[in-house]
Every structure is written in structure tokens, then in C-alpha cells.
Amino acid sequence: MLAGILRRVARRLLASIPALFGVVVVTFVLMRVLPGDPAVFFSSGPSAGKEEIEELRRSMGLDKPIPVQLVRYLGEVATGNLGRSMTTGQPVVLDMTRRLPASLELTCTALFIALMFSVPLGVAAALRPGTPVDHIVRMLCTLGVCVPTFVSGLLLIYAFYYLLGWAPDPTGRIDIFAAAPPDITGFFLIDFALKGDWEGWWAAFSQLLLPACTMALFVLAPLARMTRASMLAVLGSDFIRTAHAMGLSRIRIIVAYALRNALLPVLTITGIVFSTMLGANVLVEKVFSWPGVASYALDALLASDYAPVQAFVLLMAMIFVLVNVTIDVLYGIADPRVSVS
Amino acid sequence: MTADLLRVENLQVAFSTRHGTVTALHGIDIALKAGETLGVVGESGSGKSVTSLAVMRLLDRAGKITGGRVMFEGRDITHAGHADLRRLRGSALSMIFQNPRAALNPIRTVEQQIVDVLAAHGKLSRANARTQALDLLRAVLIRDPEARLNAYPHELSGGMCQRVMIAMAIACEPVLLIADEPTTGLDVTTQQTVMELLARIQAERGMAMILITHDLGLAARWCDRIAVMEAGRVVEQGETVALFEAPAHPYTKRLVAASPTRRSTLADLAPPGLARDAAPVVTVSRERGPGTPPLLELVNVVKSFGGPTRAVDAVSFRIPQGGALGLVGESGSGKSTLSRLICRLIDLDDGDIVFDGESIARTPAREFHHSPRRRDIQIVFQDPNDSLNPRHNAFDSIAYPLRRLEGLRDGTALQARVREAAARAGLPLDLLQRFPHQLSGGQKARVGIARAVAPRPRLLVLDEPTAALDVSVQAVILQLLDRLRREDGIGLLFVSHDLNVVRMLCDDLVVLQAGKVVEAGPSQSIFQRPQAAYTRMLLEAVPYFDPQRTELLKTA
Fold this sequence. Notes:
The complex is a heterodimer of chains A (341) and B (556). The longest helix of chain A is centred in the middle third of the chain and has 38 residues, at 198-235. Helix content of chain A is 76%, strand content 0%. With 341 residues, chain A is mainly α. Chain A has helices at 2-15, 17-33, 38-42, 50-59, 66-78, 92-127, 132-146, 149-163, 188-195, 198-235, 238-245, 250-280, 282-287, 293-302, 306-334, 336-340. Chain A has a single domain, classed as MetI-like (MetI-like fold, Orthogonal Bundle). The radius of gyration of chain A is 24 Å and the shape is globular. The model of chain A has no long low-confidence stretch (mean pLDDT 86). Chain B is of the alpha/beta class. Chain B is 36% helix and 23% strand. Chain B has 21 helices and 20 strands. Residues 272-287 and 550-556 of chain B have low confidence and may be disordered. Chains A and B meet through helix 11, helix 12 and helix 16 of A and helix 2, helix 4 and helix 7 of B.
């Protein structure tokens, strides 16, 4: 069983290499084709002379033809060197390892919150289709999708920070005057917990809550609607009728029989939602000054800073592959019918 | 006279649909004593299943009991609350369903599901839950019960799943078991063992049973009394033998007439009032010289799907021009694979398929639709519902092969050909504009046949074409196929597990088991003197509907 899973994972990872290669090449070419000249942007100032810009361009290797640049870049990527960011002056890999945990922590928390609400809401709607419960859930979902994250984020800040004063000021992962936890995993909640600093944990958590809720609101709809649809289909199936005919209790039928079967398609959607969230949360990161990878990549893009953008796209592609493999493995464990084929 | 275990009095059920309320049951009266077996027979839509679901109070949201009452053990359970019902269901009053694999939870093991039932009624001792489940599996005679405990439904055959279902249903020793088409869709031999098992359990435990079935043979064989239902009413009920020997109601008479018996011929099944089908037909006799090649010849055809055994193993047979050959066997015997090979939908590994003197095995299956032979071999599929495109009306479905294979464009020529095909399949022309959901099962079967005969094929491959149809519709479709063969000289390859049907329609018979031919020859002689043990077993398992024989069985 375990050996089979490992073999499948290995095969899937190997099969994803051509796709990743394609991503690297396409991003590279796209960045070169887009207007904007990094040499102009990063030269000492508006007064920089033509020669100075040429000099900079030569030192960045931009004077060579694009195929030559591409080959050199691919060689560097293969050795794990993703280049240096012109904006921060740091190697991109270092920047990424600092910022990725922030994004992941935010996304995972948001996904957790979204699942905590969307699954019960979807189940409630499916148990009473066509009733007010169903309509209220549908309205909540529609609202969540319709309101852009920067609006809902600002609304949440206005209500909980400005009006009520419950939330801390929305400036990053932790209060500027507080000490960051020791760098163990990069996830503040885990690091604080490992250290046993619960005061710090609470501070980090209260910083995290608003942005996470903003993101959760946005993905509530796909998850809740999927749960409802899949739950409705399962509730109408033969084995649920059997369970009723055998006199099983209502709660057991709903949880052990219906929900467990209904969650299988929800699992697939969760994978897709997670990947989307990680890339699309740039607005949330901007609104809450969250030091994540998405806002980092956006800044780089505006500055025509090639290396961080390319690295970001590659990172997203890799995470997408990993998430898909994970979902596949989980699906195989949850559904005995899959492991056979 | 003892009190009735179950008494249904003037039960009325209505469903609310988009087009208003539809009455499904117009006042049903049935009664059942302890230990008795009642058969409820009728065709689809007659309300047999609704009756059983209403008794169990398992009607879905749209269905409602609008009148009458259900008395169980002297108690009115028509308006019992959820908690009361939950205690009754599965413990005193239990049910098994058609399509057992779907009726079991796909992601729970057999043991978990049996234990769930025991736990729901407080019959479970935590310490030896496994032993209890094991004993139940032994009671339903499952081979290797220890291994089956950890199996999931998809790992079990249909017959096994039904046994597990029975184990769950009898786990809490109910006094009444409702079996809703328990053997439909199972092989004849499995069907027999499942029914024998049910009868044994019933006798051992003194359990009463309601057997709901469309198969009169099955009802006659296993039930003490029969209730015949039509359009939401019980039209006739009585002791099995008396009822079938002298049916009083016209509907019962028609059902009895349409059910094939050991001796019936196609003409016997003729429902009254279908003059066109019943009209005498002129048999086309074609001059065939002695040198005429057979229409289809299979030479040592082999196909394997990579498993340890071959799906089709060195099968040879031939169909003469305009002949009809029946291919019978249980599920997994390779008959469907064989029919797909002959239609050239899949490639064979070895051997040869010769059509009208010309080998068609050389052309790969992927290329075969370019072959001129594609027109000559057409297929009619098993399920008339799933084999029609729901977004195509009957006209488009029938026109499709004409457009694809003969390149006909919209116009009078295409119109004429579609009308001709529909007429040959006995499909009224005013139905051509209808979509599948607006047609009955029999009409859909005719669309499927019209589509197959439209390109004027010379061989029709019929993959269980009547398995999903009611007996009266089946009779008409069989007569239609026979007429196509006699009037137009179309050869038939009839794939079926229903030996009665094969016997009436086909001159020759090939019996398949595990991909091999175990017996072949003229149908009549095989039916009278089966040589292979497997053939004998198949023949004996068929629940013949035969009033005279029923009496013998009951007294034996």
C-alpha cells in the first residue's frame, strides 16, 4: 500500500518536470518581451547617461541575444541559483524562503477557516434544499464572491480595527515593537508555540485573523456550493436509502454515510482553491502589509525586476504540482475504489 | 385465523412534481401473515416499489401518503414519528434492494456496515462485534467469510453484494423482509442461489417476505400468494397456483401471455390488439447456392486484457446468411467482449473474423469506421436509455449513421431513409421529433433498432436488447426482430443471459463460460438434451413461468 503510494507520487513528480520546464521558459521569454527596461529602472537616477545604462545592461547580461540569456538562466536554475533581486539586493532564494512561510501561514489558516464554515453551511443547505436555510447560505456565498478581497479586507479593518478596536493595526505579521520568534519553521504560530511563548502566539494570531478571514470569505462560495451539490447527490443515492431502511440514526447517516462520501469531490476543489489562493492573495497581502511572496512578486514586476518574478512563477508551479500530488494521495486513502485502478 | 402481520388498507400515495401532483397509488389493499411470502408483480410504473417504500415510510421528499393506513403487528405506523420508525426499520421490518452494489456504502467495509446495523439497534456486544458479523456472513453462505469482512463493495460481485445486503437485513432478526427486485440484474445461476438463500432464511427464522418483481416466473416459483399491480392499483390477488392457472383480470391475462414459458413460441406472446405485428408475414426465401459463404465466421478468436486469463479464448462459430445465433453465458463469460470484437470496436489478439467471405480482422478497430463493412455490421445496445443522446430527437438519432456512413445530407433522401428505418422498426412516424425523455422504454428500444437498421446492415448484433424492458414490451420487440430477420434477411447475433428469449428467437446457440465455448449447436436440441454440465446448470436455474409446473414444485 505504502510502496504503491510512493511509486505513484514519484511517477507524478517525474511527469511534472516537462511542465515545470515549460513554465520556466515561457516566463523567461514573456518577461523579456514585456515593455520596460530594468537597466533604465535601476540605473542611478533620471540623470544617468546613456553609457552608464549600457554599462549596467552589460553587467546584467542583457546585451546578449535572448536565446543565449535563456541557456545561461536555465543553467543557473538547474544549480539552484535563481538570481539576485535588484530591488532588495538579496539572492531571490533567500527572499523567497523568508517570505514563503508568511504566505503559506496565511493561506493555510484562511483555508482552514473557510472549510470550518463552508462544509457545515453546505451540509445545512443540502439537508433542507429550497428552504430559507438554503437561500441564506446561497446569499452568503454570493456575497463572498461578489465583494473583491480588497473591499472586504478594508471593511473588516474599518469595523474591527477602526470602529471596535478589537483587532491590532493591520501592519504585517506581528506588531512592529514586538520580538519575532526564533526562526525555526518560519510559521510564526508554530514557532511561538514551540518556544512556549503564548503571549507572542496570541499577538501573531490576532494579526493573522483579519487577513485570513478576508481570504476565507472569498473562497467560501466554491467550497460551500461544492459541498452542497455533492451532499445532495449522495443523499439521493441508494446506499443512503439502505441506511435509512436499516434504521441507522440520522446523525450517523449524515456524518458517517453521506458526508464522508460527499467530501471526496470537495477534496479535489480544496486543492484547486488552495493553489489559487496562494497566487491570488496579492491584494490581501497589500491591504494588510503582509510580507508574503505575492506582494514581493508584484513589486518586482512593477520594477521590471526579472529574477524574482520568474522565481515566483516557478515556485507557484511547483506548489501547484505538490498540492495536486498531495490531493491525489489523500483521495486514494479516502476512497478505496481509487487505489484499485 | 391469526391476525395479519402487515395490513395495508386503501393506501394512497401522491408525488408532487413540477407539473402538479401525480397520484402513484390509488388505494392499495394487501395483507400478509407471519411467515408468509407475498409476491407483488407488475410492470414498471405499476407502483410496486412505491408500495414497498410507503410501507417502510422511505418515500422521498416529494412522495406523500395521502390516504389509507399501514398496520404492522397491529399498530398503525402510517404516521409514526422518526424515532419510532428508526426502531422498527432494520429490526422488525427490513428491506433489500435492486442493484445491491449501489445499495451498499462504497467507502465502508462489509464488516463496518454490518456492525453499523447491529449497533443501531443495540444488538452489538463491543467485545465480539467481528464474530457477530462473521456469523451473519456465514448465515448468508458467503465463501471465505473472514476475508470478505475487510472487503469493500466494489471488490465483490453483484451476487456477493446482495448476500451482504441480506446479512445486514436479517442482522436483527426482522419478522418481515421486503425484497424489491432482489435478483434483477444478477445472473440466472446467482439469481437462483440468492432466492434459495432467502427461502432458507425465511423458513429457519419464520420470517414473512414481500417479493417485488417483474418476473412472473420468479414470483410463481417462490411465493404463496400473488398481488398483481397495474397503474397504482392491485387488480387481482390470490393463491399463486389458482391465480396463474385461471387469471381473471385482463391485465393479468396479458402479463401471463407475455411471459415466456418452456414451450412458448414468439407467436404465443402476441399481445392482442397489435394487428400489424401479428399479421402473417411472407418469409423471404433467398436462393443460396451451396458455395455461398457464411455471413459471419469466427476462427479461434482470442482476446485478453492483460490479466492472467483470456477474456475470449479460441472461440469459433459461424452464422449463415440471414441466420440467428444466440450467445449465452453469465457475466464475465466474455460474451460482451465477443460482441464488441465482432462489431470491430476493439481489436483481437489472435484468430480471424470473416464476414461474407472477407476477413475483417486485419483492419484495426480505429480505422474500421472507414471500412465499407461498417455499414454491414450494426449494434443494438442493452440500455435503451443510456445509448441514446438525450439532446438528439429520434429523427437525429436514426439519421446519424446515415449521415456518417452514407454521407447523406439533410434533404428528402435522408427524410425518406429515416422514415423507412422507423417504419421497419415499428416506430410511429409522429414520434420522430420527440426526445428520448419523451419516449417510453419500448419506444426508445425501437429508436435504437431503427438506428441500427437505417444503414441497411446485413448483421445486427443485439447486446441484451430486452433486458431493461417489461415483459409485454419485450414480446413485441422480439417479434419485431424476428420479422426483420425473415422479411429483410438480416442476420442476428443475439447476446443474452435469458435462455427463454434466445430459444424462441435463435436457430443456433453458443454457450460461453470463462471465454470458452462449452457447447454449441441447434437451440432446440441443446434445450432438450444439454450436453455440458454448465449448460444444464444454466437451464435449471431459469425460473420458468409455468402454472402446471408450479404446482409440481410446490408439492415436491
